[in-house]
Amino acid sequence: MNRIRFATLKDLFASFSTAAIETGEEASAEESVAFIRRCLAEKRPDAAISYCAYLLPRREAVWWACHAMRDMKDLTASERACVAAARQWALRPEEAARRKALDLGLETSAKLSGGWIALAAAWSGGSIAPAGGAPMSPSPAATAQAVRVALLSASTRLANDRRPAIMTAWVEFALRSLDEGMDFA
């Protein structure tokens, strides 16, 4: 079952103009999966990760980032808490879980990948204003951008000799999810 939301680069970039900048590509009729595969063949997993962050629906993108964090052995305690909160939201996308992810993400250093994953969940919808404040919606691209930052910053913490293979595995997981659906387990 194909779950591709945007069939071509042109389709995705029309909805998320920042994705064109972040992937370094121009809008074209190239099919999304073909582009991702081309990025991997060209040894550009960072562009493939950036594209997948936008291509996956928000909940799936957060789950994907949580899954990728399993490859990280040096997460701080606050990062582990953030990833757990994001994972909880992905399992049950309820407002209380989203708000918890928001609070933890905002309390965690912007230098840490785990905090960005919590923010990705938090910015998936609803209000991002402090509790009791006037409602404020996140940008439609916020979840994708946070997932992208989380994964690319996490990749810098991988051993140089393992980085390409692990990043490729992250992208392959996203591609399987697009083809088969995301397994939230």
Give a quick set of tags describing it.
185 residues; mainly alpha; 63% helix; globular
Characterization of the model:
With 185 residues, this protein is mainly alpha-helical. It has one domain. Helices cover 63% and strands 0% of the residues. It has 10 helices and no strands. α4 runs antiparallel to α9 and α5 runs parallel beside α9. It is globular. The mean pLDDT is 94.
The helix fraction, in percent, is 55-70%
Uncertain segments of ≥5 residues (pLDDT<50)? none
Strand content: under 5%
Number of domains: 1
* Rg computed from alpha carbons, rounded to a whole number of angstroms: 16 Å
Structural class: mainly alpha
SSE string: HHHHHHHHHH
For the secondary structure, the number of strands is 0
Number of helical segments with 4 or more residues? 10
Q: TL;DR?
A:
The protein is an all-alpha fold. The chain is built from ten helices and no strands.
Secondary structure layout plus pairing:
Blueprint lengths: L8 H7 L1 H7 L8 H10 L3 H11 L2 H11 L8 H15 L3 H13 L5 H10 L19 H14 L7 H18 L5
Helix pairs in contact: 1-2, 3-4, 4-9, 4-10, 5-6, 5-8, 5-9, 5-10, 6-7, 6-8, 7-8, 8-9
